Amino acid sequence: MAPSAKSAAKSAAKKSSGSPLCVPLPELLPLAGVRLGAAAAGIRYQGRTDLVMVELAAGTTVAGVFTRNKCPGAPVDWNRAALKKGRKARAVVINAGNANVFTGKIGAAATRTTAEAAAELVGCKPREVMLASTGVIGEVMAVDKLVAALPALHGALAEDSWEAAARGILTTDTFPKGAVRKASIGGVEVTLQGFCKGSGMIAPDMATMLCFVFTDAKIPPEALQAALAKGVDTSFNCTTVDSDTSTSDTVLLFATGQAKHPRVPAEGGAMLRGFRAALSDLLADLAQQVARDGEGARHFIRIDVTGAASNGSARRVAKVVAESPLVKTAVAGEDANWGRIVAAVGRAGEPADRDTLSIAIGGVWMARNGTVVDGYDEAPVAQHMKGHEIHIEIDLGLGRGKATVWTCDLTHGYIDINADYRS
Amino acid sequence: MAPSAKSAAKSAAKKSSGSPLCVPLPELLPLAGVRLGAAAAGIRYQGRTDLVMVELAAGTTVAGVFTRNKCPGAPVDWNRAALKKGRKARAVVINAGNANVFTGKIGAAATRTTAEAAAELVGCKPREVMLASTGVIGEVMAVDKLVAALPALHGALAEDSWEAAARGILTTDTFPKGAVRKASIGGVEVTLQGFCKGSGMIAPDMATMLCFVFTDAKIPPEALQAALAKGVDTSFNCTTVDSDTSTSDTVLLFATGQAKHPRVPAEGGAMLRGFRAALSDLLADLAQQVARDGEGARHFIRIDVTGAASNGSARRVAKVVAESPLVKTAVAGEDANWGRIVAAVGRAGEPADRDTLSIAIGGVWMARNGTVVDGYDEAPVAQHMKGHEIHIEIDLGLGRGKATVWTCDLTHGYIDINADYRS
Known about the structure:
Shape of chain A: globular
CATH superfamily of the largest domain in chain A: L-amino peptidase D-ALA esterase/amidase
Number of strands of chain A: 15
Strand content of chain A: 25-35%
Helix content of chain A: 25-40%
Radius of gyration of chain A: 22 Å
Distance between the termini of chain A: 14 Å
Order of helices and strands of chain A: HEEEHEHEHHEEEHEHEHHHEEEHEEH
Oligomer: homodimer
Largest sheet of chain A: 6 strands, mixed
Structural class of chain A: alpha+beta
Strand order of the largest sheet of chain A: 13-12-11-14-10-15
Largest interface: A-B, 72 and 73 residues
Number of helices of chain A: 12
């Protein structure tokens, strides 16, 4: 695997190239019940923070959504087991540089050691510590370095270290990613804010999708889990960079319960309507930032599919188009190559009929009902392709199913990041 | 879409780069009942042949396998309809440069015009003319140029123009692809030979997978179709360049019936055992040539999956690995990154267990039963990665299912060919 010196060099090289799709980190103010911080533990990277800890107020409830990959990392195993035993959390420990995946019993032991060390500092049970790791697969993690760095990191936790935490979890990302939303529960304002990282859906040397969201609301764990599952379904599950689902993908939502709103029933219900909407919106914001910072991305692509047999069908069609190397390279080349979209729709394995299929790019319908639009003028579409935000619309003309998926283009930068280790 | 001058320049640029994976065209000798030729019709390309015609002896039977893409090209529609009416063929007309896909009624009319023109020259019914087109999608084809070039082309058909035909159907391919096999039917030797093109599974501007195989055997159409379907299943259906299934993929098999062997029963049966084996072997040879000439390919990759729950499951796992951009870029970078293989296996949606999973590259088992092999030495694997033929073995440790898939790496060359139109 690539030595860390090369990794750092590559990372720096990518940063200096300056993504045109960068989104500035919003102001992340203190949130009642959350203290956090970052440290440089030297697990893999040198000269940067790579370890993040978050301490949560007593009584914090937690919800989690994890990768469906059948070869999950040890931290994913740990979290799943911990959440089965209880839906309370007091801390999160996140490291970048080593994913602790495919590491067998040694990897499982490393998660236990980490959770126990954090639990002792916080004064809680190990199973109240959530874990996440991102980085290289198959290498034994230097858990001794991680544990050695924890006491000083814990001693320095602060309410206002959100940006440090958002930066400390990055791998090949070129910018930190955060979002804030407000919602009302029973007439009382609550805050939701979080941060995440990409930047391939997976790049086992360097990346994995991790997301951490916090709210001061007081929400029973069942309702919290339901809200998170719904929000992830229309955000991170609608984002793809390279189709390579990570072994470590993790989204955690913590509710510290510090806000003084009326009591939320266990099932959530109508009282959480605003909260759920704000959460879904926040997750969609973060998910789009991941696509914008896809490895090597120069164009952000939004794909809207309508007229499908069902919403699920629409999403599968949108994903096949979003993951088509030929569509992605066409966008990279700023080429309005709708023929490649036709081909991708046709091979998606979903109900589709060539003769009712219509396609638009940048709002211009270039193909309608199975053939090119009479007098189609490519000029405005070519102009749209020169921008950094590409909008593709596909109407299957069959039913009422619809979906939106976000992705990015496939460029030389992606190859540079993922192939050029030896050059 | 890219003007033809640029296309030609790109094509030439790729050719001059010299694929390390090139396979020399074998000697293709005359085959009884087949006359063929190529001409420059100027449909899209300038200064090269782009139109191929084959005339077949009276009584020739035909079998076909076509794309499963739901947006098939007009020639695929034509062939399907023709084969429904009868399993005899007297001619094939193939053009490169325009795929005649997503062209609506005009496209359908173009296929009829072409078939009628060829039928008149040959003296057969239009439905005895098979068609195939490869090239740009969505542009109306210059069928007038095609038809105008047919009489002279037909007049010059010859028994020994196999290489000209193999070259005339190419698009982004860097070398012509052909194969020959012998088989025995009832003690009499018969010949099978054919040619095909790639070179992305699809690249709508330039490519589509087309394959034409001929035999002098006399085989009833049902048995011919069964043999072809079986052979395609273990050859072209096990090959992937970029996962983008074409709108035009076509494999046609013609049996001219000129060989003097005992009569083959309608269902084929044991008498065709040797023929079927030779056909499958020939198709596998051609399919591997397509992967070797994948757009931008620098490494040919063979992926063997064993220990799967079923053969189908093994193939799906192998395909996900073969299509993983991260695995393909790792091979391009000559990086023995088995962590990416683990991740791809895990997301394939097939039965898999991290703790029984083993992985080898170049015959060296680097990971066994869910963790890295004790004392794993990367040196011999790194040496293997520097070669042009990469062998990946994956043992799922679950059952007896197995499959082999062939692919190539994902390189800057692929991006050059598919994205750099405007640079």
